[in-house]
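Lecture 7 notes: from sequence to structure.

We start with a single chain of 487 residues. Read the sequence below before looking at the structure.
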Amino acid sequence: MYRTLEELTDHPVFHYFAEISKIPRGSGNEKEISDYLIRFAKDRGLESVQDEALNVIIKKPATLGYESAPAVIIQGHMDMVCEKNKGTLHDFEKDPLQLRVMGDMLYATDTTLGADNGIAVAYALALLDAKDIPHPELEIVITTEEETTMNGALAVDPAHFKGKMLINIDSEEDGKLLVSSAGGIRVRQVLPIMREAAPKDAAAYSIRIKGLKGGHSGISIDKERGNANKLLGRVLQDVELESPCYIQQMNGGLKGNAIPREAEAGILLQLEDEHQVREKIRQWDETFKNELQSSDPEVLIEFERSEPISGYVFSKETAAKAISSLLIIPHGVQGMSMGITGLVESSTNLGVVTTNDAEMIFESEIRSSIKSIKYLMVTQAKAIADMLGCDLLIDADYPEWPYHPGSKLKKLFEETYKEKYEAEIEVIAVHAGIECGVFIDKIPGLDAVSIGPDMFSVHTPEEHLSIPSTINNWQYFLYTLKRMKDL
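Now the structure, written as tokens:
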């Protein structure tokens, strides 16, 4: 077992994971990591391309004896979700991640680890740097903005590739072979804010939902974890029923593809109503602890005096529409697959709520493995927005990855797993966006699979990576590359 980070980074995969963890690489902030990859390729005399979207393609010739084997595309993304614990002084625009080993797991300190999908970059760099690993011709593509829009993959020019097989390294469960994924689209309901002067004799308070686990909005959506934005709507609606409550702002969540762990409202109340509202908050705290006792036992509502945000509050009409939006914008599983037991077919996540000077924005991530259902949910979101007098913005549309039972690549990975471990690999589909669907759309006849090591609590500050699983998955990956000469 590796006891320290220094010991761990003797392994080539973890060496490069530690190197890229020094470089900021949040979605939309990939220039530095993209340039690093290009320098890496040039230093080793490898053919490379950096396109306008900052995607990087690096090619490495086949090793001796593999010249006739078909070229293979190795694919992952360079960006990561940037979340941190409240109060953590970490600037994702410039600060390196603080890695730490705990037992057989690798963590970052109070932030996301970025193993999703830094592990793919580390695999790629270790493979490109090695001189003793047999492999066919490699076409490695590392994309940008996967965690937000998939605009990187959508911008890739397929003319760069001759390979018709793609190995994606963006899965999160060792011993499982991913062969299908959901498509997705982002919708943002925009509510114009009308304001009026704040009552002069009112005091300012904050209502804060916290302590939720959150998680990836595809992988964890079926775990029935609490959504801080939805919980806040219930509390505000109840407070409004009996006490004059003047809303100044609502904010919750950080990323559309992460189930929101925290949400907060800034309100004004008459001082004589404080006790009554405080009692309501206490009751809601008990209610949520009961409802979420299995999924989110640490849920907590805080109610505190605060400073007024401005001299204005939402008009009664705006406040009513804002609360109604939190209540009726859907969240969670919308349908289960009837073809694959236990697979979520369709879902939506109300991931981010923000207030600015002119408007409130309610951002949801819609997913489905069926294209027509995905667009049905968009139609439903448009109906809700129209009913509330809001605009609806739609973007970040990416395709699903259909299951291909006759896949030669799937068959090879099944065979090599059985050879290596004397066991059957579990073939799975996942309710999350994987870039394989984009590449299959771009490259006719492309065959694809996805693998990866065990990761936990992805997209949260508790994200951690299994060290033994990473080493095992790397060895399985290399063993299968070696067998590609037989295709």
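The CA atoms of residues 80 and 116 lie 6 Å apart. Keep this in mind for problem set 3.
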